[in-house]
Amino acid sequence: MLWKEKYMVGVPQIDQQHEELFSRVTAFVETLRSDKPWEQKLEKVSETLEFMKGYVVTHFADEEAYQAAIGYPHYQEHQKIHQKMVAYVVAVSDEYEKEGFKEELMQQFGGKLIAWLINHVLADDQKIAEYARSKGAN
Amino acid sequence: MNSELLTSFSDAANQTFKLLLDLDVITDTVQSPENNDKKEYIENIDIVIQITGDLNGEIMYSFPKDMTLEMVKIMSGMEFKEIDEFVKSALGEIANIISGSALSSLSQAQLICDIRPPKVSEGQTFPVSEGCSLYGAKVKTSIGDVGLNLRTIQSAG
């Protein structure tokens, strides 16, 4: 399981969505890393990839709406980070379909995804929560 | 100046290891280029990131194989036995995060740079050609020592 208590930012709505996102990424990575032949993992990998594509966009939009509501000063900078990640997820997903559902690409995607996600929550999202606390909002 | 530049990267590595992996850096030491013994890095996974802008050159991170596997285990909670595409990609992203953080601190000193996507390889050489300067540092943690080599290209004129 990827989720750790230290990833909580202290904003209930964001934390709840982060836990869901980490839970889905965990399911994705566990499937990816299981000993089964790739052909037997394809369906589950495709299913979780599709979910994440949708959920990442929903979560980022909700998080950005929260930032706007509290007047977070680095809103645009944070939005650019989100946009870059969404573009990466869509590009990988397109390449995955175009190239015939190859395992190598998904393994690369999984590795980058966990490091990016953990850093984004601990470095970037914590700053939103710190700002919210300083303004007495949550 | 180059040793100061390298300090930005070792400081960023220190912060990233602490934040993402709960690792404390025991020491980080700047070495002269002559002390960089390549043999020491044969079993390492090397990540090279090209830097462009006010500073032109490359930063190379050398992660020991065992440390790499442990880092990915800390992040994922899963055991990894070999360096595969998943592990290389996770490590490449960590190097990317460290480099981005270093460049962010350099931008406060009015040095505006950008980075290219990381290139991952095993046991790579890092040649120093004419017109280049190479500076090395070692970041020591409880799970292994990371080599940092910064190669800068002097602009003409």
Automatic annotation (TrEMBL), chain A:
<comment type="similarity">
    <text>Belongs to the hemerythrin family.</text>
</comment>
<dbReference type="InterPro" id="IPR035938">
    <property type="entry name" value="Hemerythrin-like_sf"/>
</dbReference>
<dbReference type="Pfam" id="PF01814">
    <property type="entry name" value="Hemerythrin"/>
</dbReference>
<dbReference type="GO" id="GO:0046872">
    <property type="term" value="F:metal ion binding"/>
</dbReference>
<keyword id="KW-0408">Iron</keyword>
<keyword id="KW-0479">Metal-binding</keyword>
<protein>
    <submittedName>
        <fullName>Hemerythrin</fullName>
    </submittedName>
</protein>
<dbReference type="InterPro" id="IPR050669">
    <property type="entry name" value="Hemerythrin"/>
</dbReference>
<dbReference type="InterPro" id="IPR012312">
    <property type="entry name" value="Hemerythrin-like"/>
</dbReference>
<dbReference type="InterPro" id="IPR012827">
    <property type="entry name" value="Hemerythrin_metal-bd"/>
</dbReference>
<feature type="domain" description="Hemerythrin-like">
    <location>
        <begin position="10"/>
        <end position="130"/>
    </location>
</feature>
TrEMBL record, chain B:
<protein>
    <submittedName>
        <fullName>Chemotaxis protein CheX</fullName>
    </submittedName>
</protein>
<dbReference type="InterPro" id="IPR028976">
    <property type="entry name" value="CheC-like_sf"/>
</dbReference>
<dbReference type="InterPro" id="IPR028051">
    <property type="entry name" value="CheX-like_dom"/>
</dbReference>
<dbReference type="InterPro" id="IPR038756">
    <property type="entry name" value="CheX-like"/>
</dbReference>
<keyword id="KW-0145">Chemotaxis</keyword>
<dbReference type="GO" id="GO:0006935">
    <property type="term" value="P:chemotaxis"/>
</dbReference>
<dbReference type="Pfam" id="PF13690">
    <property type="entry name" value="CheX"/>
</dbReference>
<feature type="domain" description="Chemotaxis phosphatase CheX-like">
    <location>
        <begin position="48"/>
        <end position="129"/>
    </location>
</feature>
